[in-house]
Amino acid sequence: MDTPRLTFALIFALGGGVCAGACGTDQDTFVLGATTSTYDSGLLEHLIARFNEDQPGLRVRTVIAGSGEALELGRTGDVDLLLVHAPDAEARFVEAGHAPRRSPVLANGYVIAGPPSDPARIRGSASPSEAFATIARGEHGFVSRGDSSGTHAREILLWREAGAAAAGAWYVESGQGQATTLHVASERGAYVLTDDATFAMLSETLDLEALVEGHPSLRNVYSLLTPRAALQPERAAVFADWLRSANGRRAIGGFRVRDGPEALFAPWPRDDPAN
After folding, report:
1. Which superfamily is assigned to 27-107+221-267 in CATH?
2. CATH 3.40.190.10, the chain: domain bounds
3. What backbone torsions phi and psi does residue 59 show, to the nearest 5 degrees?
4. 108-219 has which CATH code?
5. What is the DSSP letter of 78?
6. What is the DSSP string of 36-69?
7. Of 258, 259, 273, 257, which Cα lies nearest the Cα of 108?
8. Residue 118 burial (C-beta neighbours within 10 Å; 0-12, 13-18, 19+)
9. pTM of the full predicted structure?
10. Residue 115 and residue 192: Cα distance in Å, rounded?
11. What angle do CA 121, 182, 225 make, to 5 degrees?
12. How far apart are CA 52 and CA 38, in angstroms?
């Protein structure tokens, strides 16, 4: 059975991008391809604001897309730096020669969210794959991003680990970013996989609760890649180096959603080069 797919107007024009702060001139600007989750959570705006305090002469023009689309923009030379979270796709990007390496820079977590009534009774599941198997077995509503993003890739992996087929009228693909997908799931009373920061940012507007979280398979790693086709790699390197610096790490760890008590992103450990 074909998977239902919802169609919405695109929030971002990928060719035009979104400027953080003053866009600046061509002489002092580079293009960062970043994921919708970094934008929807507010992290990206926070990081660029802190960066501009340290580097007022260099402006970041951002293009927001799912990780799969962002990597394609890197391949074609439309962005100078990538901040993405699809480890397998990133590895293939490097193996194909499109970037010299991937460099983990920060991490947070995924959660499986759903209606407070939790009709599938997945709260307290031993693992995310167990929760997914339960959802599929009962054909409870699930909304997928379906957009080749890092979140979508992780979702596919969890279905595979669950040994479950994500297909049927109960399974809907939004084809959109994390914020839109969360709102669709809320409206439909369905389950959804999301990064915890975007969920925290939007939670007051959603009729959803985080039901499964904290499992090792829900770790969400964001990496930097500099495409070989980048037009401004030197400028991009300034931002990449800043993210790894003491000030950049402090900015990552200091980000709070609505001034909450908990940091939802952590800088990558300095002594851990692992992918």
Report:
1. Periplasmic binding protein-like II (3.40.190.10)
2. 27-107+221-267, 108-219
3. -110, 150
4. 3.40.190.10
5. S
6. HHHHHTSHHHHHHHHHHHH-TT-EEEEEE--HHH
7. 257
8. middle
9. 0.86
10. 10
11. 115
12. 17
Listed residue (64, 51, 36) closest to 235, CA to CA: 51
Q: Cα separations (Å) of 165 from 19, 41, 111, 170?
A: 40, 30, 20, 11
Please provide the size of the chain in residues: 275
Residue 151 near residue 84, CB atoms below 8 Å = no
Task: Take residue 140 and report the two structure tokens written for it.
Answer: 């409870």
pLDDT tens over the chain, length 275 residues: 344 433 332 333 333 334 443 344 466 999 999 999 999 999 999 999 999 999 999 999 999 999 999 999 999 999 999 999 999 999 999 999 999 999 999 999 999 999 999 999 999 999 999 999 999 999 999 999 998 899 999 999 999 999 999 999 999 999 998 999 999 999 999 999 999 999 999 999 999 999 999 999 999 999 999 999 999 999 999 999 999 999 999 999 999 887 777 888 999 987 655 54
Asked if residue 82 lies in contact with residue 227, where contact means CB atoms within 8 angstroms, the answer is: yes
Q: Which residue's entry shows tokens 């950049």?
A: 248
For residue 171, list its beta bridge partners.
142
Query: 255 and 42 in contact (C-beta within 8 Å)?
Result: yes
